[in-house]
């Protein structure tokens, strides 16, 4: 198999990157593996390992001699102003940073030489790996389902997996963890109810790019827009067909109804969350009495200790435990999520 083209974008100004991120991903996602780095600390770690990069787009402040230690075919250097007296190696092209982003995208396109295009076409002819769907569920409200979905997605991304998070409960609760307040266009709801040739394009237009990609939440509840089981199954089927994401994570609601069970059945694996307290224990007991309803899939059961009341949870059936943390951001760094991501990459 030919190596996939690798496009790396480096700039600590996230606001600048955000302007062109969506257009960049839509334009090049089928032609190259894209990595965007905005954290200088992570950048330092990233370049400690020898890298092979086809096209590097970097703010001038990150251009340094250490890049010569890596195999980089083309560099697009974004500069605040062009200094005609300053020269760069042949593989480096300097370009005004604050030009319209379409010109920068075109410059990236121009770097794709005939040889690279041929390599890209050969790569494209190889069937993409199947998209894997992971559902996150618990009968317990407020137990950390959305936190788990978000944290798992982040860890999968650190393992170089492309991830899409989809909120499936009525209020799409995962949106509480998003920085943006942007909402999905209601046209997407109509496209899912009446799918056609442009439905997948509409899906892509409503994907937000944060730490991980997410299907933007609707302003109205999903039942109010007429989005139910069949519409969500249509969404999943299209994501599986196109295979643009290695993992799709479904953040399910707490009610064990027909839609929840149908989406769990659509998944390749699911995460079941419980809490170490008596109320949670009773709800889990009732779930176990109806265990035959749950799909026979790979299941990762974890216990969240945040609302612990002293109840001891038997560890023999648990994949792991989320320790007690002061806030959600720290909880997302619990080692259990990294272990689960590694296991998912290996097991499914």
From TrEMBL:
InterPro entries: AAA_dom, DNA_Partitioning_ATPase, P-loop_NTPase
A Pfam family the protein falls into: AAA_31
Ranges of residues in domain AAA: 131-297
PANTHER family named in the record: P-LOOP CONTAINING NUCLEOSIDE TRIPHOSPHATE HYDROLASE, PARA FAMILY PROTEIN CT_582
The protein's name in its UniProt record: AAA family ATPase
Lineage: Bacteria, Bacillati, Bacillota, Clostridia, Lachnospirales
């Amino acid at each position: 198999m030919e190596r996939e083209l690798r496009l790396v974008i480096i700039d600590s100004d996230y606001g600048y990157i955000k302007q062109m991120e969506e257009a960049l991903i839509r334009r090049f996602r089928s032609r190259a593996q894209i990595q965007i780095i905005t954290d200088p600390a992570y950048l330092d770690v990233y370049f400690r390992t020898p890298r092979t990069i086809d096209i590097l787009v970097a703010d001038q402040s990150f251009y340094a001699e250490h890049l010569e230690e890596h195999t980089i075919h083309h560099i697009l250097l974004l500069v605040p102003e062009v200094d005609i007296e300053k020269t760069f190696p042949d593989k480096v092209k300097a370009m005004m940073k604050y030009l319209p982003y379409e010109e920068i995208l075109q410059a990236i396109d121009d770097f794709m030489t005939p040889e690279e295009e041929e390599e890209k076409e050969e790569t494209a002819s190889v069937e993409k790996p199947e998209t894997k769907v992971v559902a996150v569920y618990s009968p317990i409200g407020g137990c950390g389902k959305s936190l788990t979905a978000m944290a798992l997605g982040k860890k999968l991304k650190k393992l170089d997996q492309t991830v899409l998070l989809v909120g499936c409960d009525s209020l799409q609760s995962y949106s509480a963890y998003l920085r943006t307040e942007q909402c999905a266009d209601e046209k997407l709801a109509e496209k899912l109810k009446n799918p056609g040739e442009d439905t997948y394009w509409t899906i892509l237009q409503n994907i937000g790019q944060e730490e991980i990609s997410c299907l933007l939440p609707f302003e109205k509840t999903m039942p109010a827009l007429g989005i139910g089981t069949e519409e969500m199954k249509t969404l999943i089927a299209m994501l599986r067909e196109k295979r643009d994401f290695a993992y799709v994570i479904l953040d399910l609601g707490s009610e064990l109804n027909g839609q929840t069970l149908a989406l769990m059945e659509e998944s390749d694996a699911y995460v079941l969350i419980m809490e170490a307290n008596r109320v949670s224990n009773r709800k889990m007991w009732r779930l176990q009495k109806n265990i035959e309803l749950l799909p026979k899939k790979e299941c990762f059961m974890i216990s969240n200790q945040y609302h612990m009341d002293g109840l001891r949870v038997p560890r023999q059936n648990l994949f792991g435990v989320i320790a007690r943390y002061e806030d959600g951001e720290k909880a997302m760094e619990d080692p259990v999520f990294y272990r689960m991501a590694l296991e998912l990459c290996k097991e499914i």
